[in-house]
Amino acid sequence: MRRHSVFLAIAAVATVGTSCAATRTTSTTVAAASGDLQARLVTPDGRTRTYRLHVPADLPDRPIPLVVYPDGVGSGADETELRTWNSGLCCGASMRKQVDDVEFVRRLLDTIEEQYSIDPTHVFAAGHSNGGFMAYWLACELSDRIVAVGLQSGGLGLASCDPAQPVSLLHIHGTADTNVPIAASAPTGSSSNCNSSTANPTSG
91, 191 in Cβ contact below 8 A? Predict the structure, then answer.
């Protein structure tokens, strides 16, 4: 089953994710409510994607910020497969199958903006590891929707990046990182195993 965790936060934090397998069902969306919510949507390629949304209880009476957080590599519900993002040169089945995770995030933003009053000048993305690679790709491909990205231990897993509009960037990286070396364009440590079809579950 292909599920990866995406966490979205309104005026707080948001995350999004995808895993290595695909399921096909009808779409489900959240009602405009507060708290920690989980919902699904179906992308144009027929995949059912799951996301989590955190909405603070006391929202101001004005448009609010939104943060999209694609998490790092993680194990699936049965702990036998890896959940990954297709972020160019990384990672796993999502990359090999060329899953359109950018379009998933675009549709997700559309869904959230239909339900809540989002400030389009304050839509951000943040990620770690594989999620950091995905945050870079969102900066490159969704510069019309995302104004800034922040990431840790990720990289630009693309041959080129030509955003239509400038996107602010904060990249935090340790020089002793052996999983995603600071000079590498793709993971070379434990997360690199996700690029193998026989990988064991590991954290991003």
Answer: yes
- Give the model confidence (pLDDT) of 124-166 as tens digits: 999 998 999 999 999 999 999 999 999 999 888 888 899 999 9
pTM for the full predicted model: 0.77
Closest CA to 9 of 70, 71, 85, 69: 69
Reduce the DSSP state of residue 141 to 3 states and report it. helix
Q: What is the pLDDT, as a whole number, of residue 164?
A: 94
Displacement of CA 187 from its chain's centroid (Å): 17
CA distances from residue 42 to 29, 33, 45, 138, 204 in whole angstroms, order as listed: 10, 21, 8, 19, 25
Is-contact 7 77, C-beta < 8 A?
no
| DSSP E strand boundaries for 14-113 | 14-17, 35-42, 48-55, 64-70, 74-75, 82-83
C-alpha to C-alpha distance for 48 and 25, rounded to whole angstroms: 6
Cβ proximity of 155 and 133 under 8 Å? yes
